[in-house]
Amino acid sequence: MPQTETYILNMGPQHPSTHGVLRVNLELDGEKILRATPMMGYLHRGIEKLLESRTYIQGVPYTDRLDYVSSMNNNFGYCRAVEELAGIEVPARAEYIRVIMAELNRIASHQVFIGSLANDLGASTGMLYTFRDREEILDLFDLVCGARMTFHYIRVGGVARNLPPEFAEKCRKFLDRVPEFTEEYANLLMGNEIFQRRLKGVSRLTPEQALAHNMTGPNIRATGIPFDLRKVDGYSVYPQFAFEVPVGENGDNWDRFRVRFREITESARIVRQALEGLPEGPVMAKFPKMLKPPKGEVFSRTEGTRGELGFYIVSDGTAKPYRVHIRRPSFINMQALDDMCRGYLIGDSVVAFSAIDPLMGEVDC
Fold it and tell me: What is the pLDDT of residues 308-354, one digit of tens each?
């Protein structure tokens, strides 16, 4: 029997499909992948230590920079953790507004995923379509807080300010367009034979593998496990809304795409219900400007756009947290990259990485 030697190929850190700065160490036999080891840390900024050197209130803008495609969801998670630690009760209107912002940001994030996946497969037109429609959400965010990326709108105790009068009408116009542009995405991509062959049956994960890697979000739901913290924990006002949790059957790249695609429609349902049931009242709780939570610790989790986003905070009774640790879903989900690549070809590793939908700013923190 002829013997072959394996060799190592570094994919990245400068690679157009790594959605940030990442090096993947590929061990190859010809073009067949034997092992894929993600080498992280190129984008580390020490955000946890920065949070420990700022007051609880000053820490909110730093969470914008974690998953910078989903800043509203990051703010939501961090503020909920601080509020639980300090015993702050958020007004009902603020909770509704938070859910509206979080679900609009979920739609925008999934649009980035669909466009990036299409682009990684060579279909750059897909990215143009999704980014075109995402602009409408960014316009809504600009309307409420004057920013289009790092928003700093959700604050400890509520939100920075009330919704402007024209927001509801503009938001409903966008929601009315959701069926139109999702159908357009489906016609553009899902009927494409090349798109299907690159995704269907590729990089399959069993439910057991996904659980072993502690995956969450669309990645674990793609294996058929309906784990969604909006249903499991029922935090904020999510129990008041009717929505489904999309799940897959095969745990392959196609299911990971389909789950996120269907979540766009479900998030739109939540936003519409929240607009219709939006109560009157204040949008910010009353608490001391110099917030000093009592000594203790808390771990609070929310359903981020990429999975379970958790904040572990230890208070020593001062105005600054003693310790902050962030459970970043992108970092956890990346652990499955090796299982998703083994036995496939080099080109399939790009699709596997893209289907995980990691954000390297969140991976490295």
Answer: 999 999 999 999 999 999 999 999 999 999 999 999 999 999 999 99
Q: How far apart are CA 2 and CA 65, in angstroms?
A: 52
Domain boundaries defined on the chain = 7-364
CA distance 132 to 127: 8
Provide the CATH topology of domain 7-364: Cytochrome-c3 Hydrogenase; chain B (1.10.645)
Of the pLDDT bands very low, low, confident and very high (cuts 50, 70, 90), residue 14 is: confident
Q: How far apart are CA 158 and CA 82, in angstroms?
A: 12
Integer Cα distance of 276 and 273 in angstroms: 5
In this structure, which amino acid lies at residue 30?
Answer: G
pTM greater than 0.70: yes
Tokens of 305: 């756009």
CB atoms within 10 A of CB 99: 24
Tokens 């927001």 belong to residue: 167
Question: N- to C-terminal Cα distance for the chain?
Answer: 48
pLDDT at position 2 is: 67
- Give the CA angle between residues 170, 176, 177 to the nearest 5°: 95
d(CA 264, CA 262): 5
Using pLDDT thresholds of 50, 70 and 90, give the confidence band for residue 43. confident
308 forms bridges with which residues in the sheet?
303
| pLDDT at residue 1, as a whole number | 63
Name the 3-class secondary structure at 213.
coil
pLDDT tens digits along 90-132: 999 999 999 999 999 999 999 999 999 999 998 889 999 999 9
Query: How high is the pLDDT of residue 180?
Result: 96
Beta strands in the chain (DSSP E): 7-11, 23-29, 32-39, 154-155, 158-159, 296-304, 307-315, 323-327
CA torsion sign, 292 to 60 to 92 to 305? Answer: negative
Residue 212's contacts (CB-CB under 8 Å, 6 or more residues apart) are: none
Pairing of strands 32-39, 23-29: antiparallel
